[in-house]
DNA sequence: ATGAAAGCGCTAACAC
DNA sequence: GTGTTAGCGCTTTCAT
């Protein structure tokens, strides 16, 4: 490249005005067929790529949606991100991922960096604790979708599920299966702890004798933490017969540690994970886990944002997509 | 928000010209201290976020670098992406991830979508086969870094390693350890197959009796494919005593399948992975694998691009960062 | 050290 | 259906 082509160059080469070039590219229906063909031929021949920066500035529409993920992106959100990306691409929008890496004041800085690009909407994933950030996001006046959680008072829209109810469901399941000395292996993020809370609540309702011990590990959770976590739990509570792990990676670690110790799963120890990552079904024993429909979250979030950007109203701005307990061999 | 604030609003509120506001924000040294404080106070108070779209358009510098990843992003590139993101953020650049999701003509469309935003540079990860895309990228005239591979004639700059040599090293290692009936479990992407080629080449040099069978599986590779792959290999070649898997996920599947079949690792079967993902060290037995320094790739790529964008020359535009064979218990 | 003028490349709004 | 004009919000450039 010597100097990037502009729409004016194309216009000159095609012998038309630059407005016609713009229309031929962006609103082909509003141009006669002959014109369209002539212009697009020049575009193809020159390899012209329109400058979206300029277009965005003028039209105040960036065709860009930002997703803000927790500092360390594990495999957990992958399904959602892929669906989000695809659904947006199909509608002519691009996804921009904001990922931290901004030092100690990360959250505010990250949001600032994202808002500078003037995205048409933002998808949040359990970040944004700081009231400062929330205020700033609100005053940006763009559609926001919060995900992976449920609250009565979202910033704007929400597509999620109840983490408490997940804990309750797993607890009831283990109780029904006859386990009686449960323990929890839990990431230290807010949502994971909400699951633990639900679990304990249900345990009380069911009249479980012991209060389940909770072993907290720093997120993002790893297999190694699962192994060490089970070891620690068994040290302190040797009679433990069931472990609910707030991620499949933790559960895999627990499975491996149990096997190393000669503990039979599920007979001597029940293991339940969360996420239903692609390896869960193929483990030995296959992992019983909680499935979250990340694809649906991503698609719905995309839909909500695009609808709002394009002036359609969103029927159900707070959507609980639930979850499902996938019963396999480990519990 | 009613209407987003502009630099002019801030200028009016601070009683200065908009140029002074711009300087106070972007080149604080070029403004007197009193001025700077006055302006930044207004900025803070109003929550003003500058419009990077406008700035990019005028200055022809987006402070944006794009990374183009294969359609399905596994955990493999995570380390690199994180390092890239962080290194860019520290230098005041933002990372934008391009991810496919654009239908059958994905590659060209993805590149087009990325180039429309006029990024200052592009980091490629083993995508971009189409000559069309390569031509278009070249004519965009921006710095490009290819990664995760080695070639004598890169598009522009390159930070990678030799996939052939990885195959050779693993083969030699297994030979030294006394294994004699090797097999390969290999993703169907180009780079994985390059590793297989290196492996077979070394096997020949070492005078290995059998030519190692290769079982190909579609990328991105999964644990389930590892299990099924080992089953298939053992069916066809019951005497197999060593498997080189071109990803740690495949290796994990092989480990699980071996254990299910009562095959002792490493005594009856050696297993080698690739990637050294965070779970590799904690498996039972711990996984022998090939480590690639994703952090270094990401940091170097960021450095190269920023250096070029800011007019500094890059000393060693083709950099082989090598790899290391991490010897653990599985082989 | 600060300000005024001009313009980046595109599209909204309006003419014809 | 096509063209003209103006301006999005910022920064470059030049003047003071």
UniProtKB/TrEMBL annotation, chains A, B:
For this chain, one GO molecular function annotation is: DNA binding
In the UniProt record, does the keyword Transcription occur? yes
Q: Name one Pfam family in it.
A: Peripla_BP_3
Q: CDD domains, alphabetically?
A: HTH_LacI (cd01392), PBP1_GntR (cd01575)
Q: PROSITE patterns, from UniProt? A: HTH_LACI_1, HTH_LACI_2
Write down the Gene3D superfamilies for this protein, in alphabetical order. 3.40.50.2300, lambda repressor-like DNA-binding domains
Q: Which parts of the sequence belong to the HTH lacI-type domain?
A: 5-59
Does this UniProt record's set of keywords contain Ribosomal protein? no
- What keywords appear on the UniProt entry? DNA-binding, Transcription, Transcription regulation
**Protein name from the UniProt record:** LacI family DNA-binding transcriptional regulator
Annotated organism of origin:
Hydrogenophaga atypica
């Amino acid at each position: 490249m010597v100097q990037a082509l502009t729409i004016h160059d194309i216009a000159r080469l095609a012998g038309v005005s630059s407005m016609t070039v713009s229309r031929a590219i962006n609103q082909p229906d509003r141009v006669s067929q002959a014109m369209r063909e002539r212009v697009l031929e020049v575009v193809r021949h020159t390899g012209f790529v329109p400058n979206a920066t300029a277009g965005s500035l003028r039209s105040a529409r960036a065709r860009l949606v930002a997703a803000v993920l927790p500092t360390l992106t594990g495999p957990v959100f992958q399904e959602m991100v892929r669906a989000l990306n695809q659904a947006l691409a199909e509608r002519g929008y691009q996804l921009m991922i904001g990922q931290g890496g901004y030092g100690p004041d990360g959250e505010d800085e990250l949001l600032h960096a994202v808002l500078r690009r003037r995205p048409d909407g933002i998808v949040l994933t359990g970040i944004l604790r700081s009231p400062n950030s929330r205020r700033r996001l609100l005053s940006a006046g763009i559609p926001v979708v919060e995900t992976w959680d449920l609250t009565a008072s979202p910033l704007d829209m929400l597509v999620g599920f109840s983490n408490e109810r997940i804990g309750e469901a797993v607890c009831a399941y283990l109780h029904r299966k006859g386990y009686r000395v449960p323990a929890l292996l839990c990431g230290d993020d807010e949502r994971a702890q909400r699951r633990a809370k639900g679990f304990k609540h249900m345990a009380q309702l069911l009249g479980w004798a012991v209060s389940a011990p909770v072993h907290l590990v720093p997120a993002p959770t790893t297999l190694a933490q699962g192994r060490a976590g089970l070891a620690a739990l068994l040290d302190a509570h040797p009679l433990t017969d069931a472990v609910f792990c707030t991620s499949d990676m933790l559960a895999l670690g627990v499975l491996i540690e149990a096997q190393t110790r000669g503990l039979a799963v599920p007979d001597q120890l029940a293991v339940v994970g969360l996420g239903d990552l692609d390896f869960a079904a193929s483990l030995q024993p296959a992992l019983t886990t909680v499935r979250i429909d990340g694809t649906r979250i991503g698609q719905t979030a995309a839909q909500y944002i695009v609808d709002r950007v394009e002036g359609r109203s969103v029927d159900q701005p707070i959507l609980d997509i639930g979850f499902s307990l996938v019963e396999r061999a480990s519990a």
